């Protein structure tokens, strides 16, 4: 079977590619601004905002399954329209679709969010991820929508890099913004399991431990052998930014459905 990973040059997409190649699959992976893909992957350049190019590539590759990861934090066209274009092309080719979504589409509240909770975005990135889900579901009701949280792992993780920067005195980490970090390898394995399944709709796929960004910074300090005393912290409340504050994803359904164990951040980094 051929797997098409859209966004193979990204952190999660690259890990999905490596695991699929190791499992013996033919993998075609796309990049946009950063040429390259892991060894064993057939790399193709693709701009997901170019609907005709997306359709042409998917029709040529004829994948059995498509994993769709692209986003740009501040670019609606990539995050929302791009996801719609990939979904359209995958449906046209009869391919199974796993779309990567985010906890950022929730407003934030003390209670954990269930898989089927409808988006309540409060900022532009969350709204774009919510719009992407709506478009993907309209085009392909059978697609799996993987709602995930902070993706952690080695220094290639943006979240780990943010922590390392704050530990070095560059920027600060919020003490009041809670998330459920997930390991990039666990998430990639879960995505591949879902690609081989017929799960339809949103599914929370995140770790079981909710921590603040500042707590994540302390765990990163311990993992990298750094002095936690240098960590600069702040509060989202005082920052003036409009961002979801407490977002806990209840991933118990995924934990029961998948063979992959979704490890908590204390086990991962502690
Ligand atoms: N990172 C997190 O903590 C986190 C948290 C929750 C949800 N998510 C979701 O998880 C997914 C993967 O995140 P990630 O951190 O692995 O992302 P990433 O490392 O930033 O990778 C993003 C990918 O999108 C590609 N891309 C950007 N613009 C594109 C365009 N116009 N056309 C085609 N491809 C384009 C990039 O290609 P080039 O680099 O080659 O330009 C890259 O391969 C995203 O959907 C994100 O919303 C991430």
UniProtKB/TrEMBL annotation:
Gene3D superfamilies hit by this protein: NAD(P)-binding Rossmann-like Domain
The organism's place on the tree of life at top rank: Bacteria
InterPro entries named among the record's database cross-references: NAD(P)-bd_dom_sf, RmlD-like-bd
Domain annotation RmlD-like substrate binding: ranges: 1-259
Entries under PANTHER family matching the protein: NAD(P)-BINDING ROSSMANN-FOLD SUPERFAMILY PROTEIN
Full protein name: Sugar nucleotide-binding protein
Species for this entry: Micromonospora harpali
């Amino acid at each position: 079977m051929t797997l098409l990973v859209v966004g193979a040059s990204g952190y999660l997409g690259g890990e999905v590619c490596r695991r699929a190649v190791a499992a013996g699959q033919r993998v075609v992976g796309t990049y946009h601004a950063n040429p390259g893909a892991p060894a064993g992957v057939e790399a193709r350049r693709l701009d997901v905002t170019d609907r005709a190019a997306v359709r042409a590539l998917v029709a040529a590759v004829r994948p059995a399954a498509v994993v769709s990861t692209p986003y740009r934090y501040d670019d609606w066209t990539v995050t929302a329209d791009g996801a719609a274009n990939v979904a359209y092309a995958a449906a046209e080719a009869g391919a199974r679709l796993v779309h990567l979504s985010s906890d950022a589409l929730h407003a934030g509240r003390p209670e954990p969010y269930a898989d089927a909770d409808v988006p309540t975005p409060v900022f532009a990135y969350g709204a774009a991820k919510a719009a992407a889900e709506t478009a993907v579901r309209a085009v392909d009701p059978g697609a799996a929508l993987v709602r995930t949280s902070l993706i952690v792992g080695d220094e290639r993780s943006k979240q780990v890099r943010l922590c390392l920067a704050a530990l070095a005195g560059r920027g600060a980490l919020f003490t009041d913004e809670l998330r459920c970090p997930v390991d990039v390898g666990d998430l990639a394995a879960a995505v591949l399991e879902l690609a081989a399944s017929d799960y339809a709709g949103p599914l929370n796929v995140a770790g079981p431990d909710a921590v603040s960004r500042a707590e994540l910074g302390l765990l990163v300090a311990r993992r990298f052998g750094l002095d936690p005393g240098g960590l600069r912290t702040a509060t989202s409340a005082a920052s003036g930014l409009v961002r979801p504050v407490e977002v806990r994803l209840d991933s118990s359904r995924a934990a029961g459905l998948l063979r992959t164990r979704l490890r908590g951040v204390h086990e991962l980094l502690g």
